[in-house]
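[Meeting: bench + compute handoff]

Bench side (C.D.) handed over the final construct sequence. Compute side (W.E.) agreed to return the predicted structure before the next meeting so the bench team could plan truncations. Sequence as handed over:
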Amino acid sequence: MSENTPTAPTQYLSFFLAGEEYALGILQAREIIEYDTVTRIPGVPAWVCGVCNLRGSVVPVIDLSVRLGMPPATLSRWSCIVVVEVTLGGERVVLGLLVDSIGQVIELAAGEVAPPPGFGTPVKVNYLLGMVRSDAGRKFVLLLDLDKVLGSEEVLSAAALLPPAESSVQPPASPPLEEGPRDSSDALRPQADAAAARE
């Protein structure tokens, strides 16, 4: 078993990217917001969507699909931004992660997390804490190690190109979504309804 595999009951927030279900530690997730206006910034890597205005604070938004080596996310009414807190350069930094949709809150007991395989996963193995069977039982939910996904020098360099976090943004309008805005959520909560609606 991986040395990073949790040994105590832990909650994870799951979400979908390109049809696969991933999850992150719920303590890293601060809130979920609907995808609205994101202001693009020149000179940043392709996986940086830009910045959004979160109650007067500038929050960099990362297309997690592109960061993990997949095609860019396709915006829809289910697209949302998971606001997380990670360590960059020894400091805690708030970032937004663009995901296709929210899944559910998963509670895992000790021993339920399996180590990731050495090959065959859609993302780098060192980005994973492990994996766990989904409710359907036929597929796995991949548990991301966000500090490794976002904690590289590459991400730190990109963050330095963005406006300071304490400034505010007056963003222009973004291109319209495929179907229209999704109801926003100002607090984390299980969203099994979203998963059922996709089916």
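W.E. noted at the follow-up: The two ends are 33 Å apart (CA to CA). C.D. will use this when planning the next construct.
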